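Here's what a typical entry looks like (ABC transporter ATP-binding protein):
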Amino acid sequence: MLKLFSYLKSYKVLIGIAWILMLVELFVELSSPLFMARIINEGIEQNNLTTVMIWGGIMIALSIVSFASGIINSFYASRISQGFGYDLRKEVFEKVQSFSFANLDRFPTSSLITRLTNDVRQLQMVVFMGLRIAARAPLQIIGAVIMSLIVNWRLALILFIVMPLLLLFMIWLMSKGVLLFQSVQRKLDTVNSVMRENLSGMRLIKAFLRKNHEQEKFATASEDLKETTMKALRMVELSMPVLLFVMNTSILIILWFGNIQIANEQTNVGNIVALVNYATRIMHAFSVFTFILMGLARARASAERITEVLDVTVDLKDGEGSAEEPDRKGNLLFDHVSFQYPITMENVLNDVSFNVNNGTTVAVLGATGSGKSSLFQLIPRLYDVTAGAIYLDGEDIRTMSFDYLRKQIGYVPQETRLFSGTVRENICWGKNDATMEEIIDAAKAAQIHETIIKLPEQYETKLGQRGVNLSGGQKQRLSIARAMIRKPKILLLDDSTSALDLQTEAKILEAIKSLSCTTLIITQKITTVMVADTILLLEDGEVVAKGNHDVLLKDSEIYQKIYQSQHHGEVV
């Protein structure tokens, strides 16, 4: 938690101002009972209206000063806490952006969203409370006890004895609260996960009539969150009855013995009123302290979750090469490459070796789970190889900077993903400074231009979240246009033409040839494979056959079966 509060260093001056203003408020609060005692002892009991007016006027003036200090303190506390929240969110978001896929596998998306929103908000509230009331509450308790000792030390001993007992009770309460609120945040992650999954898959849920199942699933997660939150809040709220009982008992004892001292002329009414006032202020401070402890318990749980993200060691190290190196030709070499995901014990790819010359097209064929997509993810270094090396024009890609390497690559993943914004903005994801002419050329090459100009606002048409208002084939073609506008040296198409008809696919492949880039295509279509210069046949993470269509049709039994299944005929 202290590590996160280091982000407050840039607000040192503002924090100093806020605390000074808070101390002014505290001074007025602690001095008011003394003035009241003086008004009673020297004014009311002596029938001296002048004394009442003088000290009353001083109290009013100090109250105005306290009011102004409180308003300004709130302004600075809000400004600092909001700035702190912004800095922390920015830092966490940038850290997540630096994650490799292996790092991201550790954190569910819903959990990262909760950490960036709810958890940061909990810390913001603690910062605000720290500048507004958190520091004042303990100081008010200490100050009130000291002032009560000055007024009447014998009666004040009652408060002096009670305070440590209440403090120990609060510390115990906080230790229990931290564990409970950690559980609350985990349950909140679960609710967010269920809700996110439900909203993103709404069409499928309706199509399969799974509404009741999803409602029950959400109700269960929501019920768990409710029960855990109620348990945590019950624990915290336990403090109030205990606090009120102890403090009210203390006040009754003070009044009892105070009455005896007044009868024996050992004190006066004004001092007893001051003592009761201090006891009441202590009780109020402890009730605020309870609220603070609840906030601290939640903030501590949130701080641990945020620190967990910030402390992650990014396992992909950026290469030392410059982002301004000259463009490559596109020769690609896999040299005895093996790979396994961090959460698995077995290799997904095992001793894979092949060479791709620049400007050629390679089709990667294989059954589901054979390692095709994993192979693609290694090329832009979304993951690093476990063994072996990948070379681009003779240089190990691990020595290149991420920016430089990925500028050479156009990647269309298996799961088509578009972003909220216009059609033009989605294509420009591939090249930020693309001209309108380049955008149109890329759209034409991807065979999506004719579709775009029929949209209500053509290239400025807004797309729904994840391109929900486009068909599967349209989304694929838009993703291909996004990759082609980069004019990459290496183009990776991960089953990116599965929703396209053969004629459209053929036109796109013809347009790709004009880019003179090295193209790797994952596909299950024999018609696509046949036009490739080289075919890689993967099985259980290994290259079991390599060659062009004619060679594999003659020599590979597996390829023959795939060909037969799609052409319903015998191999000659």
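Residues 224 and 554 are 61 Å apart (CA to CA).

More examples are in the samples folder.
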